[in-house]
Amino acid sequence: DAGVIQSPRHEVTEMGQEVTLRCKPISGHDYLFWYRQTMMRGLELLIYFNNNVPIDDSGMPEDRFSAKMPNASFSTLKIQPSEPRDSAVYFCASSLTRDQPQHFGDGTRLSIL
Amino acid sequence: DQQVKQNSPSLSVQEGRISILNCDYTNSMFDYFLWYKKYPAEGPTFLISISSIKDKNEDGRFTVFLNKSAKHLSLHIVPSQPGDSAVYFCAASTNTNAGKSTFGDGTTLTVKP
Questions:
Q1: Could you tell me if B68 and B52 are in contact, meaning their C-beta atoms sit under 8 angstroms apart?
Q2: Weakly modelled stretches of chain B, pLDDT under 50
């Protein structure tokens, strides 16, 4: 089992640019989660999907953030335009059911200059 | 309002001794609790969980205790090993929104040889 795969591992870009983070969940997992980890706010849930449908996006900070899951094996988190305060580590996770523990990817470290 | 709190940012113990990591929560609707372990540059990995219908769950060297009246849970590691050195996150969710886990800020455990 390859686990949850995130790309890129690191991203450095200038403010105002569009940033796209990618995630491939574990095959067969029906739930996919996007988290952001910062020193100030810790690990916070941004959005999660069930069977490719967004269930709870209350953690998405503002309209500059959007997430999609076009199929069961791929999801994106997009920030447009990016700002320095978006700098963080973004994690994707997946789980078999909503009651099962989540499997996390290794994260994308995003730096907005 | 932080609903899950890990008040000790760090803990240092000697190899072979017991490590006790604590977690407090404020939301009485939480009924499922998990502990995750995180190494640097990796995503969190699931360690152990407990449902609110239990007050103890054990898995090898790891035991989680839940005190619902005090809204407190703890993770015991016995005996502690240097490889246990990591950041430990406590997480909680409700039955009505089981996909939405709320995480504490984490405790960095250092086990000294």
A1: yes
A2: none
Q: What is the identity of the amino acid at B10?
A: S
What is the sign, positive or negative, of the torsion defined by CA atoms of B66, B99, A36, A96? positive
Tell me if residue A87 falls in helix, strand or coil: coil
- Identify which of A43, A95, A103 has the shortest CB distance to residue B103: A43
Q: A-contacting residues of B 15-74, CB under 8 Å? A: 32, 34, 36, 41-46, 49
Does residue A1 or residue A106 have the better pLDDT?
A: A106
Burial (0-12, 13-18, 19+ Cβ within 10 Å), B56: exposed
Name chain B contacts of A95, Cβ cutoff 8 Å: 99
pLDDT digits (tens, 9 = 90+) for A47-71: 999 999 999 999 998 899 999 999 9
